[in-house]
C-alpha cells in the first residue's frame, strides 16, 4: 500500500464523534477521527514499513501520524529521526503515545529520552519520562541502572510540582511505573510517592485535577501486579 491508499482507508474509518474526542484532548485539523483499534487490519496488511511511516508522519494528519508509529521500524530510526518526530508532536497524544512508544523499542531509547528530559521543553520532557515508563513496563529489570533510576526518582521528587503540566503527568506515571514494574526500587518509589503527595495539574478550560501515585501503586500491589511487564510496547 502507498501513502494515498492508506490515507483513503483511514479517512473511510473516520468518525465525527471520535474526531471530537481527539480534538478535546488537543488534536487539530487535519484529522479523520479513527479509533486506534480500527487501524489494526490495515497494519496487518502493511506490517513494518519505515519509508511509508515517514510519509504518513509528515502529513501532519493526527490519524496518519498515529498509524505511522504502528508501522514504524524503531531500530532503523536514528536520533535525528526521533528528533524530527518529536518536533512534529504538537500535543501529548503524539509525544507520549506515538513518539515515546516508538522510541521505547529502539536501542538508543534511554540516550534520547535522557536528552529530552533535560531539555526543559514540556512535550520533550513528557515524552522522555513516558519513554522510561514504556521501557520499565516491558524490559527486564537488569537492563536498567538502579542508581540511575533512583536518581531520577529524586529529580521527580524535587521538581514535579514546578514542572510543566503534561510533564507532571509523565513524571507522576514514572513514580507509579517504577513502583510497580521495577521491583528493586519498589520501596523507594513508594516513599517518593508519599513525599510528593497529590500533584495538581491544570487542564484547559477545566478545573484542575490531582494525581496521586501512592494510591495507584497500592492498588496495583493489592492486585498482585508488582513486577508487571507487558509483552509488547506497541499494540
What does this 3D model show about the protein?
Pfam families: DNA_alkylation. It comes from Paenibacillus riograndensis. This is DNA alkylation repair protein. This protein is mostly helical and 235 residues long. It has 13 helices and two strands; from the N terminus they run ααααααααααααββα. The chain has helices spanning 3-13, 16-24, 40-46, 50-57, 62-71, 79-88, 92-103, 109-117, 122-136, 146-159, 165-181, 186-196, 213-222, and strands spanning 199-203, 206-211. A two-stranded antiparallel ribbon has the order 1-2. A hairpin with a 2-residue loop joins β1 and β2. α6 (79-88) runs antiparallel to α7 (92-103) and α9 (122-136) packs parallel to α11 (165-181). The relative contact order is 0.09.
Describe what is shown at a glance.
With 235 residues, this protein is mainly α. The protein is built from 13 helices and 2 strands.
